[in-house]
Amino acid sequence: MQSQRYIADTIVTCDANHRVFSPGVIDIEDSKIVWVGNLGDEEKTNNPVQQIGGLLMPGLVNAHCHTPMTLVRGAGDGLPLGRWLAEAMWPREGKMNADDAFWGMTLGTAEMFKAGVTSSCEMYLFEEALVESANLSGARLVMTPGVFSSVHSESRLESLVEFYNRYHDPEGKVTVGIGPHSAYDLGVAACIELAEFARSNNMLYHIHLAETREESAQLESQYGSSIVQILSDNGILEGKVLAAHCVWVSDKDISLLADSNVAIAHCPVSNMKLGSGIAPIEKMLKKGLTVGLGTDGPASNDTLDLWEEVKVAALLARVNSLDATLINPFDALGMATLKSAQAVGLDGVGSLEVGWAADMIRIETNHSSFVPSTDLNETLAHLVWSGSTRKVTDVWIAGSKVLSDGELLTIDEERALREVKERAFRLADD
User: Fold this and answer.
1) 101, 130 in Cβ contact below 8 A?
2) Which CATH class is domain 3-58+354-406?
C-alpha cells in the first residue's frame, strides 16, 4: 500500500459544497483520498509528507472529445460543420488504421496531461487502440465507440458487447459506453435501436445533438417537430444519455432534456470556430441540467486545453444573457470537474473528497497572473480568468504521477510527435 500526505497552500475541492482549505492537507492511500482538510486539523502520520505549495485541485474531465483527430488538426479550416466533415475530416479519417488512432490518442493525451486533464470521454472508432493508449499512459478513459451509418450493423453491435465485457471496469480507469454519431447521420430508427441497446447493457449513450441550425432540418421537416422532440418522442433520451453541443435548442427542448435527466457536453470553443452558435447553458443550468465541458476534437478547436473552455463558457453565458453575475469561478471550475464527471457517468471522480479517486493537479501560483491575491475569491478568479495551462506543474491519476514538474512520466512525447507528423502526411495524400 502506497501512502502519501501532501500539504498545499490552497486545496480547491470542487465538491458540491465548494470547500476550500488554505493551507490544506490531503492524504492518499493507493488510488484513493482518505483525508482532506485544513492544515492543523490532520492527525499525525508516519507516512511520507510532501510540502508542495501552490494550488491543488481535481483533474479536469473532458466530457466530449475525439482525441485521435490530432492526426487531422488544422484540416478544413474555415468550413462550416457539414462541409468540414464531408470534405476534410471523413476522407482523411477513412484512411486511418488502429495504429494511427493509437498515436493520435497518445499525442493528444500528452497535451491533455500538460493542461491538467486527467479524464476524457471519447467518441471514436478503433476503440481497442484508444484503450491500449490510455492504459499505457495511465489516463482515465470513458470510451464510447463511435457508430456511424457507414459502420452500423449487427456485427458492429456484437463487437461492442464483446468490447464492453472485456474492458468495462468501473473500479478501474476504463468505462465503456456507446457513441451513435447523430440522428442526422444514422436516422431515427437506428438511434432507437442503439438507445435500446445502450439501456439493455447499462451503457452511457453519447450522441451529437443540435450542434448546428441546419443539420437536422430534413428530419425536423419529416416529423414536424424539433430534433430534441423527435428523440424524446421515440424514447431515445431515456437512460444514461450524454448530448454533445445542444446549441440550437428551444426552451421547450431544454425542458424535455431536463425531464429525461440528459447530461450536456458543452463545447463552446468548437461551436465558435465552426460558426455553429452559442449554446444557452444559462437556461440549462436554471433547469437543473448537468452541464459538463468538452473540447470536442483537436481538429475543430484546435487544442485540447480544457481551461479555454472554462473561461469561454463562462464569458459566453454572461454575454449571451447580458448578466455579469452568471457563472462564478466555482461554477466554471465545477463544469470542468465534478459536473463533467457526472455527465460522463464517472462516480467518485471530479472532486477531492474522502473515498474518491486521487485524480489531482497542482497549479503554480507564484506567477504574475495570480498577483495580487488578497483573498480566496481573487485566487479563484485568477484561476478561471487567467488561463492556467501554463501553470499546471504536476498531475496524479489514481494516486500515481503522470506529470512531474511539467515533465511527462508515462508518455514518450517526442516519439508521439514524430509518429503523428509522419502519419498525417499519409492521411492528407490525395
Assistant:
1) yes
2) mainly beta
